[in-house]
């Protein structure tokens, strides 16, 4: 594996300005006023880190981050509440699109993006590139060495899904789809968590993973504020990452 891409790309403008049914304490709006970086990296970054074995044989080394100017929040507020409204005349620091590039100790790269203030389809990107092929999501598509001139997608992906279906999806997938929640993902995630807690097993995400993934928020802000200069990512494991076994394929 060489490169991954992750993101949280989601048009949340209406929820940001909704103090009734939107986010508790309008926290996304408050973040937009205070910070300029990637305030929500973990949603897309977590899966890519688990693919790459971050903190399990590799770790983040340093990152660099850049943000566009801010336009989306002000334009939406002007159109929704009027050009002289408090929302429209407020100052928002968060650039509409933030792109952060992380380099790992072993030389891999991960691009992480954030944009919740512009009209766009929802995506976490979920992209992984290796020397023998690439997988990209939303929609799912695959290209393999020797077959890379066109994407393998749609019905042509079915044989790969059948052959490589994760055991948890094979076991709980039909029930997960019935219950719902992001196509069943929420159910499988919660089911796995409860299984670990009930059985006394270690969780698939450690406190060190949480620290590393979350650190992209303050470190990206620091990089943006310093003309996208590179910023070292602390080794939260204190060297343990070098000897930690990769996550197994869990059944």
Give a written overview of the molecule.
There is one protein chain. The protein is of the alpha+beta class and 251 residues long. The protein has a domain at 3-131 and 208-232: Dihydrodipicolinate Reductase, domain 2 (2-Layer Sandwich). The protein is built from 9 helices and 9 strands. A 9-stranded mixed beta sheet has the order 8-7-6-5-1-4-3-2-9. α3 (42-52) packs across α9 (207-225).
Q: What's the number of helices?
A: 9
Number of strands: 9
* SSE series: EHHHEHHEEEEEEHHHHE
Q: Unreliable segments (pLDDT under 50, ≥5 consecutive)? A: none
Break the fold down into its secondary structure elements and pairings.
Blueprint: E1 3-9, H1 13-16, H2 27-34, H3 42-52, E2 60-67, H4 72-81, H5 86-89, E3 98-104, E4 109-115, E5 127-130, E6 133-136, E7 141-144, E8 152-153, H6 158-164, H7 167-179, H8 185-199, H9 207-225, E9 231-232
Parallel strand pairs: 1-4
Antiparallel strand pairs: 1-5, 2-3, 2-9, 3-4, 5-6, 6-7, 7-8
Helix pairs in contact: 3-9, 7-8
